[in-house]
Every structure is written in structure tokens, then in C-alpha cells.
UniProtKB/TrEMBL annotation:
This is Solute carrier family 15 member 2. It comes from Cyprinus carpio (Common carp). The keyword Ribonucleoprotein does not apply. It comes from the Eukaryota. GO terms for molecular function: oligopeptide transmembrane transporter activity. GO terms for biological process: protein transport. Belongs to the major facilitator superfamily. Proton-dependent oligopeptide transporter (POT/PTR) (TC 2.A.17) family. Residues 1-16, 699-708 have a biased composition (Basic and acidic residues). The chain crosses the membrane at residues 44-63, 69-88, 100-120, 126-150, 171-191, 203-223, 283-301, 335-355, 367-388, 626-646, 658-681.
């Protein structure tokens, strides 16, 4: 057993004492090329899969928006909880190299399971849900587990004296993350929407390509095995910190009455743990307290892939010239803007603020980042208020919606007893004025509707059910007779921007209509076809076949999210048609989402990048991994907040956006107050202080007493906030 362990350690130590081959005479190890390519492929895999995830839940698993949002954020949250597990495995047992390989295999299996679950022919809906959830859990453990290992493993490849090269490596590493994100959020939505398989959007391919990229990432990483420096596991500092805290709590509980009080509760660990470790934990706790308000920022930030994507589905995505963006491609703006904003802020914004004699400390930057994120959601609120103007909301309990089509040869009046919902006469073949709310006395109600045509009154008994929309078609069956046909309507807009279309035939023969790849059938004498979605586009030369003839009609543009009713009539010159718009097309352009992406990305630059910089500057070197774990936990808890609100709030979307903006403003005020009372320290002074303290302890004072342990009050202080 001892030999096996020595063999493993030797394997991990391979290359540690020798210099790795360098790239083209530089100080960059060849091994980092494999690590950067690995990270690019892995990030392509992750963001590509995640880009189409919300629409997959809605269209393939047929979940509603709130459940889809909740599961999306539950998955995101798990992806940021699992890095703790990956760090413990790497530092305590396997080392970074083997941890990346083993968990990457789990990652690949998760992608494969997820892709198989997206194949309609594999099982029923229950099987699809089970495979999808199992795949997502495995992906979360894979991506989260390797997250704390890959970047640190890359840093390990450099010699100690090459600090500048290591710093530039991390910049290249960050660029590879954003490059993978940008490309994947462009490509996978195209694979989903433009490639058709199994009779619909090809989610199996959209998930399969990221799976293939993860396989490539794993192969590339293994290919560089002989070039890597592999450090053995040295014990996880997070585990040691937790043990120290646990011992302090137990010791205080057991001895609080017997021993004198101590200045800090962590001092109760002095019997077992070194004073330096205790002091370092105290410093970390001061930063972790500032982390408490931070999850609210991530609650807003991570909605780009859920609520903002759903908002984009109800917007006009046509940029002209045949260029149409997909709703799940808008997320690429964040990664693109990050690459643009980082140099702009570093070389432009921050120096300009400095010229105005404003001292912009890290905590002030983070507070400003929160405000920018709140402004992003204010912008999203304004967009949402305008977007919903073209949306017909389903009626509430004890209400129905109704619109009337007058297919008579002259105008009619329609009267509902006790209500004046249609007070004005309706002209022949006039576009409906829109849906009108009809109150009901219970779950359903029978209305005797009076129709007046050419001075004659006709009565129709019609039953309406709550929460349902209807179209009432009025036409003549034979001279002097009026027919009322009540049809239930589908009013929920497509999440892909498709248009809905139906046909009514006044022809004396049955008609088969082909629109693109969709087939419609309208029976003779006012038969109504099914309401079927068709992709947005120009439809000219639509074929209409009867038993005796064939006709071509030009429907023109069927626009994003619109609902159309097309009335076909036989005239002497052939088949004529009238296209009516039942529900308005998406008339707010998707470009109006750009301001909210600008605000949220600017907020990310000021909040996220600065937050990591601040955290690292305020913690000793040995505690940086603990703070990294704490930072990732804020992201995880932020997604939990969205999960709770999405499932529990039950409010309109624009109200929810405004709620999140208001909550973040409130949290930013709390954070600013906490930051005001925070005093910056220099962790590097710990070495000097403890070295001096150790020297002093070697010489006892004249009264035989030793110097007291160093405390935070002894640390060199800098400015507040």
C-alpha cells in the first residue's frame, strides 16, 4: 500500500523539479497551450448548452415559464456549489491534474445523457425529463468540480520568477473563456433553430455539439500530460479552516464558564491551532461579512439566460438584409461587451474619475456596479411594459375573451344581454377590433346573443368558459338565415417568434393549403382550419387545392408573434383572400435590449472583477482559495433567490423586474454602509508582524511575561470604503 502511494506522489511530482519546454523561446511553458485550448472548449460546451436550456424546457419538455426559470437557476446554483467539492478533492486526495480528468469524464457523460434525453424517439416525456435532469446534475458536478482546478493548474506551470508571464496567462485564460462563450451562444441557437430533426427544433444537435467539444477538451488536456508540472495534494485549507472554526466553537461552549473571556471567539482555538492561522481566519471573516449582500447582484445578473431570453422571444428580431437574430443569441452581447469594457474602464473611465479627484476604492466600485445592474433591470422594465402591449393576456377566473368576425354581406350589431361589449355596428369583413373581456357568473355561462342584420334579429345560444378566448364567426347559411359559430382560440405567443395562422373557407369545395412545410385543411362552406405556427417570413405563391382546381395566393409577410386569420372566397376571377391580424405582431425591436446589456456588463466589470481583486488584496496568500469559495457561494445563493421569486412571487414580469431593481438598490445602500465602516488592511504585513512577534517571544521581558498575540488592530490600516 505504501509503494502505491509513493508511486502516485511520484507521478504528481513529475516535472516539478525540471523546467518545462517553452513556447518559441519565450518564458511561456508549452503546457499552457493545452490548458487554454481545454478551457476554450469547456466554456464553449457549458455556455453553448446553457444558451438553449430555457427554450428547451419550454418547447421540448413543455414546462411553463416560471418552472423553466426555476430549474434553470437551480442548475446554475448547483454549478457554483460544486466547486467546493472539486477543491476539496483536488487538494486533499487526487491533485488538480487527476481531478480535472476524472470530473471531465463525469462532465462528458452528463452531456451525452442530456443529448440523448433530447431525442424524441427515446422513451416518453417522463424519460426525457429524467434524462435531462440527470444530465444537468452530472454537468453541474463536472463543470463545478473542475472550475477551481484548471486556472490554478495553469498558474502552477510557471516558474516562480516568471510572475509577469503568469499574469498575462490569466488574461489569455480569461479571453479564452469569453471567446468560447461568444462563439457558443451564436452557434448553438443556430443549430437549435435552423437545423430541423425529428420534426422540429434540433435540441439533440444543439446539446450534442457541446458534448463533442467537451470530449475534445478532455482529449486535449490529456494530450499535454507529459508536459505538465503536477503538484501533489497538499491538504485543503478550506477543510483546515472549517476544523479550526469548529474547534473554537466547541472549546468556547465547553469552557466558557471555567476560563476567562477572550477578545475574539476564534481565540478559543489557540489551544490546538497556531495563532497565525487564527489571525488569517479573522481577516477572512471580515471580508466574508461583506459578501452577505452580494448574492442579490448575481440574482439579477444570471437572468440574462432566463427572463431576458424569454423577453427576447416576444420582440422583433429582424435587423434587415436577411439577418435575423435568435432570442437565445442575445446573451453573446455580455461576453462581447466584457472584452470591450475591460480596457475602456481600465484605461479610460477610472483614470478620468481620478482626474476629478474622486478616490474610487474597490468597495465604491462594487457599490456602483450594483447600481448599474439595478439600472439594467429598470431598462428591462421599460422594454417589458412596451413588449406586453402586443400580447393578449389570458383572461382571469370568471372572465372570457371574445372577438367577432362579420362574414355577412353587410354590417351587423351584436348584443350580449346585460353588457355593452360590442356597442358599435360591425362592418362586413372588417378586421376585428381585438379581444373584449366578457364577464361570467361562474366557471361557464350561457349567453343568448342577439345579432341584428338588415333589420332582422337572430338569437344564438352560446356557452362561454372562464379563462378562455373565443372567436365568434357570423355568416349566412342560406338567404335570411344567420349562423353563429363559436371557436376556441389559442392566444399564447410562440416563444420562438413564429406566427400563428388559420384559414376560413367560404368556398363550396374543401381546400388544402400548403404554407411552407405546414399543411392546412379548410372544409367547404365556412370550415375553419387548425391554428398552426409557421416560421416568420414572406409567403408568396401559397398553393391552395380544391377537388377541381389549384390556386396560388401571396400571403406576404407573416411577422414575429402575430396571429392571422385568412378568409378564402371563390370569385369569378379565381380564389381571393383577406388576411386579418387577430393579435398584433411583436413590434418592439430586440435592439432595445442593448441598453440593459450595456448596463449589466458595465456593472459586472465594476462589481465582479473589482470584487475578486478586493478579496484577494485583503486576504493572506494561504486564504485566497477560501475567499474564492466564498465568492462562488454568493453566485450560487443569487440563483437560489431567483428560483424562489420565480416560483413564489406570481407577479407580472415587468413588476418582477422592478422588484429586483428595487431590492438591489436597497442592498447596495446596505453594502455601502457596511463598506464605510470597513478598514482596509495589508495582509503582507502578517509575515513581518509574526516574524517580529516570534523574535520577541524568544526574549522574555523583565517581569517574565511574553508579548501578547497580534490582533487585527495591530495591522497597518488604509482608508475606509
Amino acid at each position: 500500500m505504501g509503494k502505491k502511494k509513493d508511486k502516485d506522489v511520484d507521478a504528481e511530482d513529475h516535472g516539478k523539479g525540471q523546467r518545462s519546454p517553452k513556447l518559441c523561446g519565450t518564458n511561456y511553458p508549452v503546457s499552457i497551450a493545452f490548458i487554454v485550448v481545454n478551457e476554450f472548449c469547456e466554456r464553449f460546451s457549458y455556455y453553448g448548452m446553457k444558451a438553449v436550456l430555457t427554450l428547451y424546457f419550454i418547447h421540448y419538455l413543455h414546462w411553463d415559464k416560471n418552472l423553466s426559470t426555476a430549474v434553470y437557476h437551480a442548475f446554475s446554483s448547483l454549478c457554483y456549489f460544486t466547486p467546493l467539492l472539486g477543491a476539496v478533492i483536488a487538494d486533499s486526495w487526487l491533485g488538480k491534474f487527476r481531478t480535472v480528468i476524472y470530473l471531465s469524464i463525469v462532465y462528458v457523460i452528463g452531456h451525452v445523457v442530456k443529448s440523448v434525453g433530447a431525442i424524441p424517439d427515446v422513451g416518453d416525456s417522463t424519460v426525457h425529463v429524467v434524462l435531462s435532469m440527470l444530465g444537468l446534475v452530472l454537468i453541474a458536478f463536472g463543470t463545478g468540480g473542475i472550475k477551481p482546478c484548471v486556472a490554478a493548474f495553469g498558474g502552477d506551470q510557471f516558474d516562480e520568477e516568471h510572475t509577469e508571464e503568469r499574469r498575462k496567462f490569466f488574461s489569455i485564460f480569461y479571453m479564452s473563456i469569453n471567446a468560447g462563450s461568444v462563439l457558443s451562444t451564436i452557434i448553438t441557437p443556430i443549430l437549435r433553430g435552423d437545423v430541423k430533426c425529428f420534426g422540429g427544433d434540433c435540441y439533440a444537435l444543439a446539446f450534442g455539439v457541446p458534448a463533442a467539444l467537451m470530449v475534445i477538451a478532455l482529449v486535449v488536456f490529456i494530450a499535454g500530460s507529459g508536459l505538465y508540472k503536477k503538484s501533489p495534494p497538499e491538504g485543503n485549507v478550506l477543510v483546515r479552516v472549517c476544523k479550526c472554526i469548529g474547534f473554537a466553537i466547541r472549546n468556547r461552549w465547553n469552557n466558557s464558564k471555567k476560563s476567562p473571556k477572550r477578545s475574539h471567539w476564534l481565540d478559543w482555538a489557540e489551544e490546538k491551532y497556531p495563532k497565525r492561522l487564527i489571525q488569517e481566519i479573522k481577516m477572512v471573516f471580515r471580508v466574508l461579512v461583506l459578501y452577505i449582500p452580494l448574492p442579490m447582484f448575481w440574482a439579477l445578473f444570471d437572468q440574462q439566460g432566463s427572463r431576458w431570453t424569454l423577453q427576447a422571444t416576444r420582440m422583433n428580431m429582424d435587423f434587415g438584409g436577411g439577418f435575423i437574430i435568435k432570442p437565445d443569441q442575445m446573451q453573446m452581447l455580455n461576453a462581447l461587451l466584457i472584452l470591450v469594457f475591460i480596457p475602456i474602464f481600465d484605461m479610460g473611465v477610472y483614470p478620468l474619475i481620478g482626474l476629478c479627484r474622486i478616490k474610487l476604492t474597490p468597495l465604491k466600485k462594487m457599490a456602483a456596479g450594483m447600481i448599474l445592474a439595478a439600472l439594467a433591470f429598470c431598462a428591462a422594465t421599460v422594454v417589458e411594459i412596451n413588449v406586453i402591449k402586443s400580447v393578449v393576456e389570458p383572461p382571469p377566473a370568471k372572465e372570457s375573451l371574445v372577438q367577432v368576425y362579420n362574414l355577412m354581406d353587410s354590417e351587423v350589431t351584436v348584443q350580449f344581454p346585460g353588457h355593452t361589449v360590442f356597442s358599435d355596428p360591425l362592418k362586413s369583413y372588417e378586421d376585428p377590433s381585438g379581444y373584449t373581456s366578457l364577464p361570467l357568473t361562474g366557471e361557464s355561462q350561457l349567453y343568448t346573443v342577439t345579432v341584428t342584420h338588415n333589420g332582422a334579429e337572430y338569437q344564438c345560444g352560446l356557452t362561454f368558459t372562464e379563462r378562455t378566448a373565443y372567436s365568434l364567426f357570423l355568416h349566412t347559411a342560406q338567404p335570411g338565415d344567420t349562423v353563429c359559430k363559436l371557436v376556441k382560440d389559442h392566444i399564447t405567443k410562440s416563444e420562438t417568434g413564429a406566427a400563428y395562422l388559420r384559414f376560413i373557407s367560404t368556398h363550396t369545395e374543401n381546400i388544402n393549403i400548403t404554407v411552407g412545410t405546414e399543411e392546412f385543411y379548410a372544409a367547404a362552406d365556412y370550415g375553419i382550419s387548425q391554428n398552426i405556427s409557421v416560421p416568420r417570413g414572406e409567403y408568396n405563391g401559397v398553393v391552395c387545392k380544391t377537388n377541381s382546381d389549384q390556386y396560388l395566393i401571396d400571403l406576404g409577410l407573416l411577422d414575429f408573434g402575430a396571429f392571422y386569420t385568412v378568409i378564402l372566397s371563390k370569385e369569378s376571377n379565381g380564389l381571393t383572400f383577406k388576411k386579418m391580424e387577430d393579435i398584433q405582431a411583436n413590434n418592439i425591436h430586440i435592439a432595445w435590449q442593448v441598453p440593459q446589456y450595456v448596463f449589466i456588463t458595465a456593472g459586472e466589470v465594476m462589481f465582479s472583477i473589482t470584487g475578486l481583486e478586493f478579496s484577494y488584496s485583503q486576504a493572506p496568500a494561504s486564504m485566497k482559495s477560501v475567499l474564492q469559495a466564498g465568492w462562488l457561494m454568493t453566485v450560487a445563493f443569487g440563483n437560489v433567490i431567483v428560483l424562489i421569486v420565480a416560483e413564489g412571487a406570481g407577479m407580472e414580469q415587468w413588476t418582477e423586474f422592478l422588484l429586483f431593481a428595487g431590492l438591489l438598490v436597497a442592498v447596495s445602500i446596505i453594502f455601502s454602509i457596511m463598506a464605510y465602516f470597513y478598514t482596509y488592511v495589508d495582509p503582507d504585513q502578517l509575515d513581518k508582524i509574526f516574524r517580529e512577534d516570534t523574535d520577541d517571544e524568544k526574549v522574555e521581558s523583565s517581569d517574565g511575561k511574553k508579548n501578547e498575540a497580534v490582533s487585527l488592530t495591530d495591522m497597518p490600516k488604509q482608508t475606509k470604503m
